[in-house]
Design goal:
The structure is a single chain. With about 350 residues, this protein is mostly beta strands. It has a domain at about 240-349: TolB, C-terminal domain (Neuraminidase, 6 Propeller), CATH 2.120.10. Helix content is about 5%, strand content about 50%. The chain is built from one helix and 28 strands. A four-stranded antiparallel sheet has the order 3-2-1-28, with no helix packed on it. A four-stranded antiparallel sheet has the order 4-5-6-7, with no helix packed on it. Strands 8-9-10-11 form a four-stranded antiparallel sheet, with no helix packed on it. Strand 24 (about 295-300) and strand 25 form a beta hairpin. The longest helix is centred in the N-terminal third of the chain and has 9 residues, at about 1-10.
Length: about 350
């Protein structure tokens, strides 16, 4: 691994790792530059994540039902191009989410194990020298604290009691830091400071009835929890259409100054009938819709926090768009072709 890192540092000039989007399209994995140039990384995969410096990638594969090949976790150097298997699961189990520690020293991943439920694992670099550390049962989401010492996720233990639970990596101890009466979904540490952003059910219409079934899920709001004040406050959406009351996904800028999110209608499917991408400052003094149409989603910040990329599907053709925060200029990165009319942004490093 040491040799691999040395070689990678020598070849960094040949790989522009600061300017690539990691994008999925119908099961294929691409690296796409903001100039629109693309490179196919994988023809088939399950999940993938780039290291903080953009030079490495971890990805998982699904179990092959015919050959009974188990689900596997792989490590790849993008500068050298070689792959290595670092973990696998027994048949009947599968990997879920993978997240890099903020300094690139380890990864955390969740896996659904047959007859054991979902569990969290930690694997430290170099990946080929140790076994994954089983951190116990896990519910949903993985988000490291800025210093990489803790992981937060949302748990829902009983009706009308949902909590933010923090796992201390060194000791393995868990602590409840915040409780809400409504169901919590995704929680993410701010990359700087002590804030945690999380989504929470604001309105749940229920299943409906035989005459008027409702297949739509709950409408989710976004809240910010302060570790200093030990309380949460809602994030407002100034200027959004009234029926856009459902937060589909959100992400922090790496400096902790902004949140970018998808806000839209509550529908039976994803991404739904109407969505927009919004930029909101952490102090909530800035609220701006940065998308133009009514079907835009999945924002992600550039590594330098100067731009936001997102998917636009307003015209029926998937487009990767780029918004410059300072100038307000919106530009096209790449447009999908008719055979692969789909984009899902995973990362930008």
């Amino acid at each position: 691994m040491l040799f691999l890192l040395v070689v990678s540092s020598l070849l960094v000039t040949a790989f522009d790792h600061d300017n690539h989007l990691l994008v999925e399209s119908y099961g294929k994995l691409f690296l796409i530059k903001v100039t629109g140039e693309s490179n196919v990384l994988l023809d088939r995969f399950n999940s993938a994540s780039l290291s903080p410096d953009g030079r490495f990638m971890v990805y998982t594969t699904l179990q092959d039902q015919k050959s009974k090949t188990p689900s596997k976790l792989h490590f790849r150097s993008l500068t050298v191009g070689n792959d290595s298997e670092v973990a696998s699961l027994v048949p009947g189990s599968y990997f879920k989410e993978i997240v890099w520690e903020p300094h690139g020293r380890s990864i955390a991943y969740s896996a659904a194990l047959e007859n054991k439920g979902e569990r969290l694992f930690l694997l430290a670099l170099p990946f080929n020298t140790g076994k994954p550390r089983d951190m116990g049962p896990w519910y949903q989401g993985i988000s490291f604290s800025p210093d990489g010492s803790k992981i937060v996720h949302a748990v829902n233990r009983e009706p009308k009691k949902s909590e933010l639970e923090v796992l201390d990596i060194a000791s393995g101890e868990r602590m409840i830091v915040h409780s809400e009466k409504n169901i919590l979904w995704e929680a993410k540490y701010a990359p700087v400071g002590d804030s945690i952003a999380f989504t929470m059910t604001n309105r749940d219409p229920g299943p409906g009835n035989d005459d008027s079934p409702d297949c739509g899920g709950p409408s989710l709001g976004l809240r910010l929890y302060s570790g200093t004040a030990h309380r949460s406050r809602p994030v407002a959406f100034v200027g959004a259409p009234k029926n856009w009351d459902n937060v589909k996904n959100f992400t922090w800028s790496s400096d902790g100054r902004y949140l970018a999110l998808t806000l839209g209608t509550t529908d039976c499917d994803y991404p739904g009938s109407e969505n927009g991408v919004f930029l909101i400052s952490a102090d909530q003094n800035i609220h701006k819709q940065i998308s133009k149409g009514k079907l835009s989603f999945e924002p992600v910040f550039s590594p330098d926090n100067k731009t936001v990329a997102f998917v636009d599907f307003e015209s029926g053709v998937a487009k990767l768009m780029r918004f410059d925060i300072q100038s307000g200029k919106l530009s096209l990165i790449r447009e999908a072709d008719s055979r692969n009319n789909f984009y899902h942004i995973l990362d930008w490093k």
